[in-house]
Amino acid sequence: MQIDVVLTREDQLGNALSVSVTEHRRADFSMLLAMLSQDALEFSQFHLPESELVEADLSELALKKELQIGPQQALAPETYDMLIGQDNASRLAQSSLTTLKLQQCLSPEPLAIRDDKTHIPLVIVDNCEIAVRKRLESVKNGVSKEDKPAMNAAGFYDQLASGQMQSALQLTA
Known about the structure:
Elements (H helix, E strand, L loop, with lengths): L15 H7 L3 H10 L24 H8 L20 H7 L2 H10 L15 H5 L3 H12 L11 H10 L3 H7 L1
């Protein structure tokens, strides 16, 4: 057996090790192993072939196509729609639950009938105090909220520091 290159890694041997094992040539096998480098950094597992990395298309459309994902289900429609899901009962009565699930997968309906983050159901509004109802109604009608009175923070601090309000604060405590 003749080897033309300096051996450092077992992948340079090709199939010479396996041939020596199958042909029961212990001397050749021992010689080949002795010729390999003893340095662990020279082992084959640390010298894997390098290939060019191709950046995968990670856009949402490409991922949906690759994973075969159907259309996205909207949380709410663009406009108020009270008729969402009106055909589901008749579809369920005419066929089966499987047909209803298939229809939902093919053309998903929005989860809610309203896309208004500021909407508060009437049941909740009716349970609120009158002052809260008035404030909610003024916000709904676009009337500005009551402005807080302007506070002179520097003057208030001066009164606290001078002791004018010390007696008032001690009475409340």
